[in-house]
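User: I've been trying to design a sequence by hand for this structure and keep getting stuck. Would you show me what you'd pick, starting by listing the structure so we're on the same page?

Assistant: Good idea, let's start from the same input. This is the structure you sent:
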């Protein structure tokens, strides 16, 4: 009886524009992260941009969570809505943690593997943003949504390889007398932060995949 009642009641669709807004902020954060990893005199400006985007994302997340509490009929399960927006928020939060580490240690140049991981983060962020408007018609858009989640998983695998290769190159560069133990420690921490960003984006793809399974 309850399922039938929910089926005929109008659903609140304001969640979808909020998802899209949040995803666009994550993409902007990823673009700023790529700017950071390019190095040079603009690092501080790009780190500040990531911090600003993280603040904007928090505001959108609060809007979503408030709407969940106030909306009688949601487009899908309330917990799923909360998990989806929280996973997106975790991604931009991790970008901000990366930027804070860079500011703390005053890093101004970055290894090629780090820059490649930045490009992967941007690619995964754009795929996530593409998925958001498709959620409004999951039945029709399920094939494309599934393809997006699979591509993000492949990207995460590539990021894992870059993470490992980058750490190995960092070790060799700092163990032959040309570098320092501190450079290795800082570089390793940055690689771990970048990998965590990709992992959080994979979490978003997993939430999307779970929604597809639940709704179809």
């Amino acid at each position: 009886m309850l399922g039938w009642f929910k089926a005929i009641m109008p659903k609140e669709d304001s969640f979808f524009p909020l998802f899209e807004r949040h995803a666009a902020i994550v993409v902007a954060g990823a673009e700023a992260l790529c700017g950071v990893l390019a190095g040079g005199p603009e690092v501080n400006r790009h780190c500040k941009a990531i911090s600003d985007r993280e603040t904007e994302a928090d505001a959108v997340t609060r809007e979503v969570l408030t709407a969940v509490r106030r909306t009688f009929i949601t487009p899908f399960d309330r917990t799923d809505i909360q998990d989806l927006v929280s996973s997106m928020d975790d991604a931009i939060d991790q970008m901000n943690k990366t930027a804070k580490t860079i500011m703390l240690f005053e890093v101004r140049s970055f290894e090629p593997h780090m820059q490649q991981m930045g490009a992967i983060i941007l690619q995964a962020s754009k795929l996530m943003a593409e998925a958001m408007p498709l959620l409004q018609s999951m039945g029709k858009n399920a094939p494309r949504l599934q393809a997006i989640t699979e591509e993000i998983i492949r990207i995460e695998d590539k990021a894992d390889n870059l993470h490992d290769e980058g750490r190995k190159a960092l070790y060799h560069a700092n163990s032959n007398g040309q570098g320092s133990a501190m450079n290795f420690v800082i570089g390793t921490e940055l690689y771990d932060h970048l990998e965590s960003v990709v992992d959080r984006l994979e979490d978003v793809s997993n939430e999307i995949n779970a929604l597809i399974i639940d709704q179809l």
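That's my pick for every position. To get oriented when you compare it with your attempt: The mean pLDDT is 92. The first helix runs from residue 2 to 8.
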